[in-house]
Every structure is written in structure tokens, then in C-alpha cells.
């Protein structure tokens, strides 16, 4: 058994230690926002936050995550009460097909948690590893800037596991 702390809750999972986190999130924990894109850590669709840093869950074995804090997009809010960054993505209509959005949100959340007032250049550089094939990049950037304004006024109240 491997114990994982995901979105502030401990979970014991029976998985091969080398199993990528993405598979455990989706198959065992029913947290389906992170998507399998390339399986090579080149698209970012599977991005989650581990101890404050964005990581590719398709490449990260679960054994490396014991005693670490994992946050998925499901840990940022709910459909009824989205978190500030999720709400900004909704307000800016940043999702088209939606496949990349969970990974985009998680990468952006890691940035805003570390720096609630990033410059345009910092946002672009930080978001560069994540790909969007639908071309909503400008809406995604607007959503991050919008959320940044919210974070500067009041940091988001999220799970205290980090």
C-alpha cells in the first residue's frame, strides 16, 4: 500500500510503486481532470501541483510522492463554487475543447501561489511548457491576469494541506 495525500485527504492505494500518478488519480481515486496527452511530459495536460510545484503526473511514479502534498484541479474548487483561478477561466471563456485546461489551471495556480503579481513575461514563460491545440492561449493569459488581480486583493482560501 502506498499512502498519497491528495487535495488534503490521505488515500491508501494498491499500485505498483512505478505506476505514474496520473493512472492512480484517474483509475483509483476517480479524479479525472488531469488528462493523458502525450505520456512524455511534453504537453502538460496531466499537470498537477506537488508541494507547490507543477509536475507531469504522467511521468511521476507514485512511490516518489509519499508524504508529499498533491493538489489536482478538483482541490481548487467545486462546480458550484469554483476557485478564483477556475472562475477566471470561466469568465474569460478560456476553454474550447477543455482537454488542456486542467493542466493549464494547475500550472497557473502554482505560479500565482508563488507570485500573485506576475508580469506578462513571467506568465508567458511559466505557461510555456503547456500546450493548447485549440488556440485559446490569449484567453488563458487573460484568465491568469484576471485571477492575479483577485489573488492580489485576497489570497485564495484553499485546502490547508500545503
Mean pLDDT: 92
Major β-sheet, in short?
5 strands, mixed
Cα end-to-end separation:
23 Å
Percent of residues in helices: 25-40%
In spatial order, strands of the major sheet run 2-1-5-3-4
State the helix count.
5
Q: Can you count the beta strands?
A: 5
| Class computed from helices, strands and strand pairing | alpha+beta
Give a quick set of tags describing it.
5-stranded mixed beta sheet; 5 helices; globular; single chain; 162 residues; alpha+beta
Structure description:
This protein is an alpha+beta fold and 162 residues long. A 5-stranded mixed β-sheet has the order 2-1-5-3-4, sandwiched between helices. Strand 3 and strand 4 form a beta hairpin. Helix 2 packs across helix 5 and helix 3 packs parallel to helix 5. The mean pLDDT is 92.
Briefly say what this structure is.
This protein has 162 residues and is α+β, with helices and mostly antiparallel strands. The chain has helices at 21-28, 84-91, 101-114, 120-127, 137-153; strands spanning 2-6, 9-13, 47-50, 53-56, 69-71.
Layout of strands and helices, then pairs:
Layout: E1 2-6, E2 9-13, H1 21-28, E3 47-50, E4 53-56, E5 69-71, H2 84-91, H3 101-114, H4 120-127, H5 137-153
Parallel strand pairs: 1-5
Antiparallel strand pairs: 1-2, 3-4, 3-5
Helix pairs in contact: 2-5, 3-5
Amino acid at each position: 500500500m502506498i499512502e498519497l495525500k491528495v487535495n488534503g485527504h490521505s488515500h491508501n492505494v494498491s499500485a505498483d510503486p512505478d505506476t505514474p500518478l496520473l493512472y492512480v488519480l484517474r483509475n483509483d481515486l476517480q479524479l479525472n481532470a488531469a488528462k493523458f496527452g502525450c505520456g512524455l511530459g511534453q504537453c502538460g495536460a496531466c499537470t498537477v501541483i506537488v508541494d507547490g510545484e507543477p509536475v507531469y503526473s504522467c511521468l511521476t511514479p507514485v512511490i516518489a510522492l509519499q508524504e508529499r502534498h498533491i493538489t489536482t484541479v478538483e482541490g481548487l474548487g467545486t462546480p458550484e463554487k469554483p476557485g478564483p483561478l477556475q472562475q477566471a477561466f470561466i469568465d474569460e471563456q478560456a476553454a474550447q475543447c477543455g482537454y488542456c485546461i486542467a493542466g493549464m489551471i494547475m500550472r497557473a495556480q502554482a505560479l500565482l501561489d508563488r507570485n500573485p503579481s506576475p508580469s506578462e513575461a513571467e506568465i508567458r514563460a511559466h505557461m510555456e511548457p503547456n500546450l493548447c491545440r485549440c488556440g485559446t492561449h490569449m484567453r488563458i493569459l487573460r484568465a491568469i491576469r484576471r485571477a492575479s488581480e483577485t489573488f492580489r486583493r485576497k489570497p485564495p482560501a484553499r485546502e490547508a494541506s500545503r
